[in-house]
Design brief:
single chain, outer membrane lipoprotein receptor (LolB), chain A, two-stranded antiparallel sheet, globular
Length: about 270
């Protein structure tokens, strides 16, 4: 039965749209979910996980991404996020840390609010408000490349923490060994290891198309799932024939617990073009 989000789950402040505050099913803590039988084939397993994830409704995730590029230089990025699953438009609050800066982002009501530590967009306004619709404003044409880059970066972060992205990768793959028992952050899980053909992923994801072109035939992955059918960890390793590689390691926690996705105060937000 649908129920309104609790107060700390509704975006507040500047520009919180009605769509972002639409009624969603109430989150269900993992402890209140029934145990499920985990299937031994990727497709049925992912169907089970998807149902449990939707029922839980919220999650916190920590992502560590690293890779070699630019002649072998090692790059690393960390994302911590809280997400309202099933919200349309998405609802999420993220902190993105790379070697150069720390960026906070709030995604609510189809709008992105972002700020970089130590910077102001206007006097007294550390936050900037952006949306894809803003990019249609001809007055912003000189800044379109920069603004598109900001929005693309947030979208990439959302994709990285999205449970759906990982589930589809596993669904298109195969297990390469029997599931094993392993504890993740104190929670007993089943560990599934497998591989997915890069060519299959490239059909819907341009990033994997580039990997395929560089000689990466398969994407190895490992998925840890608890007895409630909820992912606890997901790791993907990509390596190409040219020696380039990347690793993405996601840990999921506090399934079904309250999250706080709030737009920043209006007087702290700068709107591009004003």
């Amino acid at each position: 039965m649908a129920a309104a989000c609790s107060d700390d789950e509704k975006p507040k402040g500047d520009g919180a749209s009605k769509a972002s505050q639409a009624a969603l099913p109430a989150p269900v803590p993992a402890a209140s979910l029934r145990q499920v039988t985990l299937p031994d084939q990727p497709g049925p397993l992912i169907d089970t996980i998807a149902r449990q994830v939707r029922t839980a409704g919220t999650v916190r995730a920590d992502v560590v991404s690293s890779g070699t590029e630019n002649g072998g230089a090692r790059q690393q990025e960390k994302i911590s996020a809280q997400v309202r699953i099933g919200a349309e438009p998405p609802q999420a609050q993220m902190t993105i840390v790379d070697q150069d800066s720390t960026t906070e982002a709030v995604v609510a009501g189809g709008t992105v609010y972002t700020r970089v530590d130590g910077e102001e967009q206007a006097p007294g306004k550390p936050w900037v408000r952006l949306s894809r619709q803003d990019l249609r404003n001809p007055e912003l044409a000189p800044f379109s490349k920069i603004l598109t880059g900001i929005l693309d970066s947030v979208d990439t972060g959302l994709a990285q923490i999205s449970v759906d992205s990982g589930l589809q990768l596993v669904r298109a793959g195969r297990f390469d060994k029997a599931a094993a028992t392993e504890t993740v952050d104190g929670v007993p899980t089943r560990r599934y290891s497998g591989r997915t053909p890069t060519a299959e992923l490239a059909k819907t994801d341009t990033a994997f198309k580039a990997v395929a072109q560089l000689g990466g035939d398969e994407v190895p992955w490992t998925l840890w799932v608890d007895d409630k059918g909820l992912p606890r960890r997901f790791r993907v390793d990509v390596t190409t024939d040219r020696g380039l590689g990347s690793t993405q390691d996601i840990r999921y926690r506090q399934w079904g617990e309250p999250v706080s996705v709030q737009a920043p105060p209006a007087d702290k937000v700068h709107t591009i073009g004003t």
